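explain this:

___
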Amino acid sequence: MSYFANSPDDLVDSALAGFARAHAGLVEHIADPGYLSARRPAPGRVVGLVSGGGSGHEPLHAGFVGGGLLDAACPGRIFASPHNRQVYEASRAVAKSGGVLHIVKNYTGDRINFGIAAERLQHDGIPCARVLVDDDVATDSEDIAVGRRGTGATVIVEKLLGAAADEGRSLDELEGLGKRIVDGSRSIAVASGAQTAPGTGRAAFTLPENAVEYGVGIHGERSGVVRENAEIGPLVRDLTAALADALALTAGSRVTALVNGLGSVTPLELYGIFERFAEELSERGVVLERRRVGPLVTALDMRGFSLSLSRTDDELTALWDAPAHTAAWINEESA
């Protein structure tokens, strides 16, 4: 068997129940219609934060429900958008006096279902706004009608907006801040092996030996760009250049960086990748103010990684450093 579960649906349902049981002090699992909410929401918030998306990307989004981050997360089936009823019910449950903000990755299903939920909330008199995360450099093309995909930088958006919400900022303020963060964030991913489908055990695609798919998506979307005989040093250099160019970074630019494992890349490899990433940024004179390394936005068992950069300043760095405690996030000392 490729996955230790009876079926794809069983995998999702049992994992959600198990996650809530394992982290019972942090989250509550509402099985019908299916969402996770924070047990100890921040008392100073006037706006609730809700996100969600397909399962298979753990710890996103469930791992970021709790103090300093999300009030609720809505998981769909594997690689499928949550139903609009999930989003609606979760949003109603955690909405504050100032309404609710949806953090949405830029995929058609997510946009539609969060949009329907938002219309229902507004009909109920609950103010609702949306921050659309579209950070993927590989899909930054006028030929792609839906625009850039939402990927690794979603974690940065959720962390910073969570801290800002804890300060008591309004819905309009959070929406504006979220759009500013998204505008200053870009990601790109590569993989040497596709994820395997829980239902069939087959790989989503195959690659030649010692080759990588450059610009792969978190659902196994292929870019059509295959690099053979890829070496990690030149590969990280090219990925860094793509991000730096997309953000127009120059010497003195300040950034937060993520090195994200897509499922089956080991911590040993990820920290080696981070070291090369940091060296590339240093050579460009880019100031690496904050960083995070590990599996944050995965794609089941895909053998790959993504790099993300987000422009920062004194305000955003302070928000990054603000206290947070969820199943997948504990603040680290900054240096």
Summary: The mean pLDDT is 96.
